[in-house]
Write a structure and sequence with these properties.
Blueprint: E1 2-3, H1 7-17, E2 22-26, E3 31-39, E4 42-50, E5 58-62, E6 68-71, E7 80-87, H2 96-104, H3 109-123
Parallel strand pairs: 1-4, 2-7
Antiparallel strand pairs: 2-3, 3-4, 5-6, 5-7
Helix pairs in contact: 2-3
Length: about 120
């Protein structure tokens, strides 16, 4: 697992590795963006934890300036590399204990148990 400093860093990883798809997992406290990337005989996961909610469906990487924008719609402009954001419902890439810490912070005990049960069911 490789945590990057900003969304721009994550988009730069996507562009450099030519894995032009970013996964988004929304939790109770954050949005986690990640890119699974095969590395030799294992899997590297580059991720960014966003404090605020991102509403967009695409990252736009401006090939002239290196600037990264978020867009709700696809842009057909040759100066941009368009990277779709896929909302994840179930996944098995991110470790269970990594995800659980984002669901526990604001839940009551009963809601915590329900939420953890859902997480365990989706991971296993």
């Amino acid at each position: 697992m490789v945590k990057v400093k900003s969304v721009t860093d994550l988009v730069n990883v996507a562009v450099a590795t030519q894995v032009l798809l970013v996964h988004r997992l929304n939790t109770d406290s954050k949005s986690i963006f990640y890119i699974p990337f095969p590395a030799y005989d294992s899997l590297a996961i580059y991720y960014y934890e966003a404090e605020e909610a991102f509403k967009g469906k695409y990252f736009l990487f401006n090939t002239f300036t290196g600037e990264v924008q978020v867009s709700e719609s696809y842009v057909n402009d040759s100066k941009f590399i368009v990277i779709p954001i896929v909302d994840v419902v179930e996944q098995e890439f991110l470790p269970k204990d990594f995800i659980e810490k984002y669901y526990i912070k604001k839940k009551s005990k009963k809601k915590k148990e329900e939420c953890l049960g859902e997480i365990k069911a989706s991971i296993s």
